[in-house]
Specification:
Layout: E1 2-5, E2 8-11, H1 15-26, E3 31-34, E4 46-49, E5 52-55, E6 60-61, H2 66-74, E7 79-81, E8 87-91, E9 97-100, H3 109-129, H4 140-144, H5 148-155, H6 159-174, H7 183-192, H8 196-200, H9 202-205, E10 208-210, H10 215-225, E11 229-230, E12 235-240, E13 257-261, E14 264-268, E15 270-273, E16 284-286, H11 291-298, E17 300-302, E18 305-312, H12 316-319, E19 322-327, E20 335-338, E21 347-354, H13 355-362, H14 366-381, E22 390-395, E23 408-410, H15 414-418, E24 429-431, H16 444-467
Helix pairs in contact: 1-10, 1-16, 2-16, 3-6, 3-7, 5-6, 5-7
Cofactor: FAD
Protein name: Putrescine oxidase
Family: Belongs to the flavin monoamine oxidase family.
């Protein structure tokens, strides 16, 4: 068992925790990063499966993700554009398959007009409310107590339009049914990307990938930190001592908190919980967290999605004049993209099966699930999609230290009720993850932003303590 004394102990070696650690060390503070898994990267994970390099976790970079782009550049990591030449494929509510070009789905005039109306409404709300404090807006409670499903139908009677607009946030981002989260949560998702229009533009939101994989960001950050990162070390207990004044008492060495993991005990002045909110309860806090924290954390949960990887001897769809980009709100696999690796002669498709559709798939055997999913992809791209050389399903819902994907969101009514307190430290305990980000919410960019913001808050707190009178 390692016994360490540090200024800051960080729970979680994903992009948020590692970025925070790097910034804290730059500021002259000592750190230890405790990670439950046998690897760094959190919800980014690049792995070779049956000879194919796959992005099991988060992978895309969009132009607005300036913090991530700057860090990639600083680390010497290069990006390349997602393949997007050729026609896309849309399967409508009538089950008909249509090839198309351009930004809009090939739907009827009425449905197209309704989609434009809903998009304009969401763009307006996102601009008005913004990503930083959506809970503080005068309409926050109104929008947070109606589900996104019902909000859409309050504003349009066109079911295909509602389902298509819902796809971009429910299936494509929050990976929960649209009846399970609020309109305010949907607005936050849109505002965090700059607008709802950005979420509907796959050429924007899914612009580029990192050559060699997104996990490299965490691997390089961890390499800089060296022995300050301890793997295979789930934190079981955090002991901290509240003072009568509402702060925390320091012992003779200046420590205010002790984190006890399976491989290390770290005495520190501050602790950062750099894991998603659904995992906070995996740690026993002594004394317990305040009531407000207990309640808030129970209203945040991750969604569920199966990320499907299918690798072929060549990108056959390109020869058919197709981009590999496919949409169908009613299809089992609602989204498909060309996910071919940089300069790889093989072709890779990635598809997504979200929320209740994923529930249904997990009731099947692995063989039947594979057949159903590939049948759905073939409905877009033809029978050549039925026989990949490599097939793999990213199932983050079964990961012990994640338990869902892509990120946490509040249940109906939770965002306006608890959002103002989600960043509030409890004594020496700070919270930092992409799930709590404003810009870049639920993306690696948001994790980088949160890591930097949290580190800055702790540096400021340490400076204040240094000049405080005895």
């Amino acid at each position: 068992m390692l016994e360490l004394d540090r200024d800051v102990v960080i729970v979680g070696a994903g992009p948020a925790g590692l970025t925070a650690a790097r910034e804290l060390k730059k500021a002259g503070l000592s750190v230890a990063v405790l990670e439950a898994r046998d690897r760094v990267g959190g919800r980014t994970w690049t792995e070779t499966i049956d000879g194919a390099m796959l992005e099991i976790g988060g992978q895309w970079v969009s132009p607005d993700q300036t913090e991530l782009l700057a860090l990639l550049d600083e680390l010497g990591l290069q990006t390349y554009p997602r393949y997007r030449d050729g026609e896309s494929v849309y399967i409508g509510s009538d089950g008909q398959r249509t090839r198309y070009t351009g930004d809009g789905f090939p739907v009827g005039e009425t449905t197209a007009a309704e989609m434009e109306k809903l998009t304009a409404l969401l763009d307006s709300l996102a601009a008005e409310i913004g990503p930083a404090e959506p809970w503080a807006h005068p309409r926050a409670r109104e929008l947070d107590t109606i589900s996104f499903h019902h909000w859409l139908r309050e504003n349009s009677s066109d079911e295909e339009a509602c389902n298509n607009i819902g796809l971009f946030i429910a299936g494509g981002m929050l990976t929960k049914p649209a009846h399970a989260f609020s309109a305010l949560q949907a607005v936050l998702m849109a505002a965090s990307a700059g607008s709802f229009s950005h979420l509907t533009d796959e050429d924007f939101i899914l612009d580029k990938r990192v050559i060699g994989g997104m996990q490299q960001l965490s691997l390089l950050l961890a390499a800089e930190l060296g022995d300050d990162v301890v793997l295979d070390s789930p934190v079981r207990t955090i002991n901290w001592a509240p003072s009568s004044a509402g702060g925390t008492e320091e012992n003779s060495a200046g420590h205010r908190v002790t984190a006890v993991s399976e491989r290390a005990t770290v005495n520190a002045r501050f602790v950062i919980m750099a894991v998603p909110p659904n995992l906070y309860s995996r740690v026993s806090f002594n004394p317990p967290l305040p009531r407000r924290q207990h309640q808030m954390h129970q209203h945040q949960s991750l969604g569920l999605v199966i990320k499907v990887h299918a690798v072929y001897s060549s990108p056959f769809w390109r020869g058919d004049g197709l981009s590999g980009t496919c949409f169908g709100a009613g299809a089992l696999v609602q989204e498909v993209y060309d996910n071919t690796n940089h300069e790889d002669p093989r072709g890779t498709l990635v598809g997504f099966v979200s929320d209740e559709k994923a529930d249904a798939m997990f009731e099947l055997s692995a063989e039947d699930r594979r057949r159903a999913i590939l049948d759905s992809i073939a409905g877009f791209l033809g029978d050549k999609a039925l026989e990949p050389e490599v097939y793999y399903e990213s199932d983050w819902g079964s990961e012990e230290w994640t338990r869902g994907a892509y990120a946490a969101s509040y249940d109906l009514g939770g965002l306006h009720r608890y959002g103002k307190d989600q960043h509030a430290p409890v004594g020496p305990i700070y919270w930092s993850c992409s799930d709590l980000a404003a810009e870049g919410y639920q993306h690696v960019d948001g994790a980088v932003r949160m890591g930097r913001q949290t580190a800055a808050r702790i540096v400021a707190a340490a400076d204040r303590a240094a000049v405080a009178p005895n």
